[in-house]
């Protein structure tokens, strides 16, 4: 993962439990009332790990796309340390990629750097005002499906280079009912088609987040923001993830 040409995967103590390495967006650690610490037992990565007797390395951030997962893989030393110990890697990104982003993603990401603070607040308020009003244009999305798949494939190929036997699991985008995005998710079908083609080409199994969380996200039990899930959705995602992990990874349930 580093720029060095002589990187060698270090030997890992066979007695240590495997690590579930999850590169994800905020759906992995947000609950019905907001973001949570990575060790909260109710979020789906920890439910999965507890079921398998594994540990978790969750590397995630709100708004992350497949491009950010690739950057984390290549730039975050926590990820480098987890790869030799990993029992499987999950790409829990893609949902943000498919959301409407009529204003450039780069603009949103740069708002935090605007100075002075008073101007930053004005710019942020303007962005938050414009986003839902322009979302019905349905184009462009935060990251086009072709680019999403390219970043995921770069990440998969990099992992295969250092750990050829390491299972990788992908995800299909979730669904939402968010006023912040004008309740628009027209980019999801194209994203799903591209991801399913990538899965067919590479053999990477996919967990359909939409199927797992749809009932919850459209209920009063989900987060009021209309994007993040309630606890039942986290449990359903964990169930679906466990099915795929048991099919590709040597696991022994606790």
Layout of secondary structure:
Layout: E1 19-24, E2 30-31, E3 34-35, H1 44-52, E4 55-60, H2 66-75, H3 77-82, E5 86-92, H4 105-110, H5 117-134, H6 145-162, E6 168-172, H7 188-202, E7 206-208, H8 209-217, H9 231-248
Parallel strand pairs: 1-4, 1-5, 5-6, 6-7
Antiparallel strand pairs: 2-3
Describe the protein.
This protein has 254 residues and is of the alpha/beta class. Helix content is 43%, strand content 12%. The strands form two sheets. It has a five-stranded parallel sheet with strand order 4-1-5-6-7, sandwiched between helices. A two-stranded antiparallel sheet has the order 2-3. Helix 7 links the parallel strand 6 and strand 7. The longest helix is centred in the middle third of the chain and has 18 residues. The protein is globular. The two termini are 32 Å apart.
- The low-confidence parts are none
Strand percentage, roughly?
5-15%
Number of distinct beta strands? 7
What are the secondary-structure elements, in order, as H or E?
EEEHEHHEHHHEHEHH
Helical content, roughly?
A: 40-55%
- First-to-last CA distance: 32 Å
Principal-axis shape equals globular
Going across the biggest sheet, name each strand in turn.
Answer: 4-1-5-6-7
In round numbers, the mean pLDDT is 91
Q: What is the makeup of the main sheet?
A: 5 strands, parallel
Number of helices: 9
Name the structural class.
alpha/beta
Rounded radius of gyration (Å): 18 Å
């Amino acid at each position: 993962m580093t720029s060095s040409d002589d990187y060698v995967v270090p030997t890992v103590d066979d007695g240590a439990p495997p690590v579930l390495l999850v590169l994800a967006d905020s759906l992995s650690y947000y609950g019905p009332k907001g973001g949570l610490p990575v060790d909260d037992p109710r979020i789906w990565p920890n439910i999965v790990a507890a079921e398998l007797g594994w540990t978790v390395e969750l590397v995630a951030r709100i708004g992350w796309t497949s491009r950010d997962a690739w950057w984390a893989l290549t730039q975050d030393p926590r990820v480098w340390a987890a790869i030799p110990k990993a029992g499987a890697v999950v790409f829990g990104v893609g949902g943000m990629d498919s959301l409407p982003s009529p204003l450039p993603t780069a603009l949103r990401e740069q708002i935090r750097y605007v100075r002075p603070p008073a101007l930053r607040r004005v710019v942020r308020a303007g962005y938050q005002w414009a986003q839902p009003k322009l979302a019905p244009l349905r184009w462009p999305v935060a990251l086009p499906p072709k680019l999403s798949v390219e970043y995921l494939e770069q990440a998969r190929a990099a992992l295969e280079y250092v750990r050829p036997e390491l299972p990788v699991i992908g995800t299909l985008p979730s669904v939402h009912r968010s006023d912040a995005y004008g309740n628009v998710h027209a980019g999801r079908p194209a994203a799903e088609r591209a991801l399913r083609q990538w899965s067919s080409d590479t053999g990477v199994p996919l967990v359909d987040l939409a199927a797992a969380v749809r009932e919850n996200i459209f209920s009063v039990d989900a987060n009021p923001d209309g994007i993040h899930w309630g606890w039942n959705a986290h449990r359903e995602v964990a169930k679906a993830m466990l099915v795929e992990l048991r099919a590709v990874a040597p696991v022994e349930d606790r």
